[in-house]
Specification:
This protein is mainly alpha-helical. It has helices at 2-15, 19-32, 43-52, 56-62, 70-106, 141-149, 159-171, 178-188, 192-204, 207-236, 240-265, 273-280, 284-296, and strands at 110-112, 119-121. A two-stranded antiparallel ribbon has the order 1-2. α1 (2-15) packs antiparallel against α2, α2 crosses α3 and α10 (207-236) runs antiparallel to α11. It is elongated.
């Protein structure tokens, strides 16, 4: 391969032709270079090549012969670039490890009670996808077909129970799945599309709350990464004075991290009683009393 590169370079330098052949030869050499490193595998070839590719035209245009040949110069460039690549790869792996460890730390969802005990606040991983209901709010063909053919069902619960179940559904609107909503609609004798509409309207009122919740999650994730990084640096440090500085910084960051945790634990993704009253068109006091006695009931 080096002989091919040298010959292609000499032809190009002499005649100004054969640029594509030279580019392909160098590209192939760069692509296979990670295989010579014990820290890399075949999976790294493409990523390493893409990280170096932009430099190849510059090398071709600015290389000047100094007696060692272009392959020696290219190999030196690749060795230095390999150091940078391995450092970035190590940093990326550390970020992934911290993200996984943070996810394991916060993955259990906690249930906090505000007025009725159904306010659910999920602590999701940083890279978790958003709920499907945000995507266009389109009605699935299956649901549409069901809505068209669904007869008016008699409720399977009393009118008083149906009212309570409806209020609970709107309070927990953020977390309800389609199948659950359909079951609730059948139980209270309400047309499915009517209940789906009420749920969607309720969810719309939570967009600002959810955005604040996501921002707090991002802050917590960044803070967690900084804490883990500092802990690693402190473990590697041999300077006692530097370790004292690390301890002070870690203490301060952990304090802020705990404050964010507490704030997130009190952040409920549920509509207020006032919003539910506006959506249903009934007095807020009626909702307050219904949910209060529902919470107190055994």
């Amino acid at each position: 391969m080096p002989n091919t590169i040298q010959k292609a370079w000499e032809d190009y330098a002499r005649s100004g032709k054969g640029y594509e052949i030279l580019l392909r030869s160098i590209s192939l050499y760069v692509y296979q270079f990670p295989l010579h490193s014990k820290y890399c595998s075949e999976e790294d070839c493409a990523e390493f090549f893409l990280s170096f590719y932009a430099r190849i035209p510059y090398i071709i245009e600015h290389y000047q012969e100094q007696g060692k040949g272009i392959e020696a110069y290219l190999r030196t460039c690749l060795k230095w670039h390999m150091k940078t690549y391995l450092k970035s790869k190590l940093k990326e792996n550390r970020v992934q490890q911290f993200a996984v460890s943070e996810w394991k730390l916060i993955t259990p969802a906690w249930v906090e009670e505000e007025t009725l005990g159904t306010e659910i606040c999920e602590s999701s991983p940083p890279l978790q996808k958003k709920n499907a209901w945000k995507k266009g709010r389109k009605i699935s063909p299956k649901r549409k077909k069901t809505a068209e053919t669904q007869p008016d069902l008699a409720p399977t619960v009393t009118e008083k129970q149906a009212k309570k179940l409806l209020l609970l559904s709107l309070k927990a609107a953020y977390d309800l799945e389609d199948r659950t909503i359909e079951t609730i609609a059948q139980s209270i004798g309400m047309h499915q599309e009517v209940l789906f509409h009420l749920i969607e309207v309720t969810r719309t009122t939570l967009l600002k709350k959810e955005e604040r919740f996501r921002r707090l999650q991002e802050k917590r994730s960044k803070l967690y990464f900084r804490i883990c990084s500092l802990q690693e640096e402190m473990e590697r440090s041999t300077n006692l004075l530097a370790k004292e500085t690390f301890i002070q910084r870690l203490s301060r960051l952990k304090y802020y991290f705990q404050k964010l945790q507490n704030k997130l634990s009190r952040h409920y993704l549920a509509p207020t009683h006032q919003k539910v009253a506006e959506i249903l068109g009934i007095p807020k006091g009626s909702i307050d009393s219904t949910l209060y006695y529902l919470k107190k009931s055994p």
